[in-house]
Each structure stands twice: as structure tokens, then as C-alpha cells.
Amino acid sequence: MLLGSLIIDLSGLSLSAPEQHLLTNPHIGGVIFFSRNFQSREQITSLTSDIRMIRPDLLICVDQEGGRVQRFRDGFTKIPPMKTLGEILGSRSEYAEKFIKDCGWLMASEIVACGIDFSFAPVLDLDKDKCQVIADRSFSDNPVLATKAAKLFIEGMHEAGMAATGKHFPGHGGVSADSHHETPLDQRSLEELRGHDLIPFTSLADSLDAIMPAHIIYPKIDLNAVGFSELWLKKILRQELKFDGIIFSDDLSMKGADIVGGYTNKAKAALQAGCDMVLVCNNRKGVIEVLDFLESYNWVPSARLSRMSRQVTLSWDSLIEDDRWKSVNAKLLALPKGK
After folding, report:
1. CA quadruple 302, 118, 198, 8: dihedral positive or negative?
2. What are the backbone dihedrals phi and psi of residue 222, each rounded to the nearest 5 degrees, phi first?
3. Domains of the chain: which residue ranges?
4. Mean pLDDT across 314-321
């Protein structure tokens, strides 16, 4: 049976009765956790188990990038911002490549050990300080360095049995506006993007299992925001970059997506443009609208989605006895404060 095309969020630390019922809807294919869903490692593992009791097939995910975007903290290893990893790689330290790969492995292993399928990572945006919402979430503003660091991080994730999602295609680092609050406009041409922001996505297309497009408009290329654009998703990403993985929409509740209209219009536009799965978070009314649309439209889910399921089963007790986990933790603790 194919997974549904919608990922939703939950309100708290445990499943409410309405949420238990909602998860039985076949058009729901996944659940994303936020900080409000987390109290402890034991609690989030229990919540994950409760979800799987209802729907064993559901994809369960989280934004556990590291740095300021790390939803699970207490009881988990503190992962540094990707900017720190990029700087370590740029310093030509003899252990840099192994360290970055180990960080990807550790982040993914801790998530998998809680029964969660994947983290939406890594960020492939190129930035240093232009875009406040990206900034230190980026490995570097240098496309070659960022690509190399991201590839190592992805290799580590794969070694842990986790699929990797590159975001935010074709690059959010060139605009100062935050797509959570408005629809940014990037006036660069496609050739300019190909020479800079697109380089990590182009170079890593074969390594990535999924890609998430940005809620950004590039008016010199297409008047539709990227996540609602057949030109961007079907022609450039699929045909030119030969990407064959999953395309996730960014959250349709973000203000950057409102240019398309209401939730029905946003979901329809994203799926028709080429997204395999859409996210609706922090708006239960929006979730219901999208479910009604998927039912009435008789939308056929993508067969690709099962690729995002975790590839290994791992217990926390066995993980923390692993020499690799101990070694990476020791190295992270040794990083200078502020890193």
C-alpha cells in the first residue's frame, strides 16, 4: 500500500484522541516532530512507538540539523552549527573529513535509535550572514567547500541508515527575507544560480534521497515560487539535474506559500508541480482542508516515499556503547566554546 501524500504535526507530548483518529486517514503519510513534542528521550521514543501502534508505515521525521535547529536537546548530543563544520573543513585539519562524516552519523544514529525515520538535513544553502534564517545553518558561502562538507555529512547519515534531504532548493542564502514570514524575491538569473547556489544541489543530486524546495520566487526565471513551479521541479530538478529522489514541499503554513492562496490551492499546486509529499504544520484546519482535497481529487500517492524509511533498527543502549559514538562525543566536547 502506498504512503499518503501529507505530513502533519502533533500538538503536544502525547497523542490526543482526535490525533489518534486522524492518523488512521490513509492520505496521511507522515508525522513531523517539533520542540513542543519533546520532553525527554524516553518520552519521544514512547510517542514514536504510540504512532507506530496506529500506523506502522508512517514516516516519522524531525528537523535535527544541529546548531539552533535541533528539536531534541536534553539527552541528545549537541550538534554544532553546520557553519562550524565547514570552518573545520576549511582549516584543512587532518581529521576534518572523518569528523564531519562522524557528526552526520551521530546525528542520524541518535534519531534512528528513537524509532524515527529521518531528519530533514542537511542544509545546502550557501550563506554566511546575508540571510538571518539560514546564516550558520549553512556549511559555507563557498559552493565547493559547502558541497564537500555536505557530501561527508550525507555519507555519515547513510552509514547510520538514514535518508538525506537537501534543502532549500535552489538556495535560500541569497535573500535576506525569511520565507516563514513573507515570499522572498531573488532577482538573479538562472546562469547566476548555476554558478553559485545550485552547485551543491547539482553536485549531490545522486547522493541525496530527497530535496525540499524553497518558498522563493525568481522572477527572471519563473513567476511561481519554486515549490509550486513545474519549471523548477520537473524541468530543472528532474530533467536537467537528473534527480530521482523524493521532493518534499516546505511547510505550506509558511507565509512564503500564501501567494498561491488557501491550503487546497497550495497543496494542489505543489503536488501538480512535482512534489511527492506536502507538509502542513501548526494549522489543523489547513490539514483538514488538504485531506478533503486529496480525497475529492483522488490523488495517487508517489511510490517513491517508502525510500525515506530508516534502514536499520538500533537501540539507544547499544548506540552509547559504540566506540564511534563515544569518540565523536569526546571530540565535540573538546570544541572551543561557541562552536
Report:
1. positive
2. -160, 140
3. 1-62+276-308
4. 96
